[in-house]
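Handout, section 3.2

Students often ask what a structure token actually looks like in practice. Rather than define it abstractly, here is a full record for Ca-activated chloride channel family protein. The first block is the sequence as you would receive it.
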Amino acid sequence: MMGNFEFQNPWLLLLLLLIPLLIFLRIRKKQSPPAVKISTLKPFENSESILGKLKPLLFVLRLAALTFMIIALARPQMVEMTSTVKSDKGIDIIMVVDTSLSMLAKDLEPDRLEALKKVAETFSLQRPTDRIGLVAYSGEAIAKVPLTTDHRVLVEEIRKLQTRELEDGTAIGVGLATAINHLKDSKAKSKIIILITDGVESIDYTNDLLYISPQNATAIAVDRDIKVYTIGVGTNGRAPFPTAEDPFTGELIFTPQLVEIDEPLLKYIAGNTGGQYFRATDNESLGEIYKQIDQLEKTEINEIKYYNYTELFGKYLTWGLILLLLELILRRTLFKELT
């Protein structure tokens, strides 16, 4: 809710120009030559009383009363606006983020994961009417946030993403399948997955029934009418990868390694589901990719605004009348003999 002070009839505030005009006329009147000339004012130097010195207060009170009354005529108001966003054509989106150790590679600033978290947070906040969820995966996958419009919670979990929380590895199929499972009952007009990885599928799913291949997960996405956008994160050539840990400090040691991204697989997933594949080689291109996806998947939004007007002219009119009444009372009592 926002509150703004405004005037219904602001043009009436031009009447405030009367205030400096009245002050000018009063000063000019005081500077006019006296009607009676005398040789000296010495006999009257100590004759002015305290009331005489305070007499200009009557003029100040009248000007203040006039000011408040003019403001009241201009109809001051406090306007409070509330807005309700209504959309029956929202999009359900799940971001599937690779949190394997290689996401700490420093070919993006300060590293791949931190760069991704920044653009994912911005993307989420720019889509207030969409339900967005978050899945993290490496050698296994976990749903961090189910589909929700509470993007504050989503942003908090995006910021908490880190490596070495899950089993090491890159299980692209499992991450994709986990997201599909959370979209299977969605009634949204469009169901979207944004899959991010910086490597190659490293899980031997043929020997473990707990895993699912990326190809099988893609087939399920196609069957459920789920579109997948895939993003490969990593520069071309070599990048500083975490390869060891200092035994004394526990800090990671980075060594230049060849960047390997299974682009054919990512293109296969995107192409079969109706999505697109993108390659992010630096922070700028990663940000641009999210902007492109944001433009490709637009939600129709109806924003309804409600305005509540609180009239304030009564308060200003009341103060104007009080000051005017006070001036009249003083003029006819304390200052009666001086007027």
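Discussion prompt for tutorial groups: The first helix runs from residue 18 to 30. How would you have guessed this from the sequence alone?
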